[in-house]
């Protein structure tokens, strides 16, 4: 009971934090527009507020959908279910693993712990890494948000999906060849149990399996199974709400920070300077890939930030932003370093950066419209 009350309390606190952040930002924009104490250029403030709020309001529905879908999947789908649909054959397995995201729309915020448990289940390294890198890109919510963000540019959705899948498969196969030892740290190897949603997923919540007061293994001769159908449904709903609110807080704060920095770049940095960097075949890719890593924006909403750089940066650099971000950012790097050996993490990071850079260069050399049409033939 104490755990349940704490979980509800934590979910309420997370929602309050999100509301406070949004209110403070809105009040800050209003104050900047109306104050007479500090003189601001009204045009700059209007541009900033318009860009900032438009991206925020466009991204919020996809954050909600993505967090809810991810929570349901993590709570009710076991690793065994995922492991069963992935063939053990490495060649067929990496192909299937690259498409699993279409069925299991899990955000990259939770993909590292899930991948770790799949590896403990005996899933080959190449397949598990392909799964980890492709799921956040092939997520239906991500593809839908990309389509909405790049309205009228359907080739961006196709290019993101195809290049992301090719990149994930390539990196998965290469890491399987280059790393033959166990990727786990000694202390990270523990016997897995239960469902996807576990205490080590990093969200701070408990699995439903632990919330049910069920003592079937007790030998005292009395029945201790008090979990009635109604209570189970209520607990399921509470767990979904609790996990969703935690994801909303984690995703929302990075999204708001990402939108803020992106808007600042578009409003305060001179256009001539941005165009001088954004027009370079290589320099534009480097800048956008660094931006993707630093911003650490969830893949459900990163397309709205990337869209803001259309016409200023090359299409290849924008694609590099869209495929690198879900694979590698500050959050994932910290989780990778905490779960796996550093030499494995170093190899993986090198491969991710290299392959994504090469794919972005290819997209810069050849028009994305042509490439996406060729890939879908």
UniProtKB/TrEMBL annotation:
Membrane topology: Multi-pass membrane protein
Pfam families: ArsP_1
Transmembrane residue ranges: 12-31, 51-77, 89-113, 125-145, 157-178, 251-269, 274-297, 309-328, 348-368
Compartments, as annotated in UniProt: Cell membrane
Record keywords, A-Z: Cell membrane, Membrane, Transmembrane, Transmembrane helix
Gene Ontology CC: plasma membrane
Keyword Nucleotide-binding: no
InterPro entries: DUF318 (IPR005524), UPF0718 (IPR052923)
Keyword Transmembrane helix: yes
Family of this protein: Belongs to the UPF0718 family.
Name used for this protein in its record: Permease
Species for this entry: Clostridium tagluense
């Amino acid at each position: 009971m104490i755990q349940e009350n704490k979980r509800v309390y934590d979910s309420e606190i997370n929602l309050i934090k999100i509301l406070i952040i949004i209110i403070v930002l809105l009040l800050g924009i209003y104050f900047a527009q109306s104050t007479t104490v500090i003189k601001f250029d009204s045009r700059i403030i209007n541009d900033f507020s318009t860009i900032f709020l438009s991206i925020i309001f466009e991204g919020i529905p996809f954050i909600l959908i993505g967090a809810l879908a991810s929570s349901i999947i993590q709570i009710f789908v076991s690793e065994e279910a995922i492991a069963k649909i992935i063939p053990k054959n490495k060649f067929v397995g990496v192909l299937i693993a690259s498409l699993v995201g279409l069925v299991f729309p899990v955000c990259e915020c939770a993909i590292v712990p899930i991948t770790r448990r799949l590896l403990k289940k005996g899933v080959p390294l190449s397949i598990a890494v392909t799964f980890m890198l492709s799921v956040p890109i092939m997520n239906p919510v991500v593809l839908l948000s990309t389509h909405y963000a790049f309205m009228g540019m359907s080739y961006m959705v196709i290019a993101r999906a195809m290049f992301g899948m090719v990149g994930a498969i390539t990196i998965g196969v290469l890491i399987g060849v280059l790393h033959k030892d166990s990727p786990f740290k000694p202390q990270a190897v523990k016997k897995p149990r239960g469902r996807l949603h576990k205490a080590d997923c990093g969200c701070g919540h408990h699995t439903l399996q632990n919330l049910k007061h069920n003592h079937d293994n007790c030998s005292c001769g009395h029945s201790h199974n008090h979990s009635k159908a109604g209570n189970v449904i209520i607990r399921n709903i509470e767990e979904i709400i609790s996990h969703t609110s935690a994801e909303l807080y984690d995703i929302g704060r990075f999204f708001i920070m990402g939108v803020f920095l992106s808007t600042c770049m578009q409003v305060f940095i001179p256009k001539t300077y941005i165009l001088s960097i954004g027009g370079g075949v290589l320099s534009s890719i480097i800048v956008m890939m660094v931006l993707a890593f630093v911003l650490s924006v969830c893949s459900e909403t990163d397309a709205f930030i990337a869209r803001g750089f259309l016409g200023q940066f090359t299409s290849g650099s924008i694609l590099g932003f869209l495929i690198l971000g879900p694979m590698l950012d500050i959050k994932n790097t910290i989780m990778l370093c905490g779960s796996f050996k550093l030499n494995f993490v170093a190899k993986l990071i090198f491969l991710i950066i290299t392959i994504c850079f090469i794919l972005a260069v290819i997209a810069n050399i050849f028009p994305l419209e042509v490439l996406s049409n060729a890939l879908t033939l």
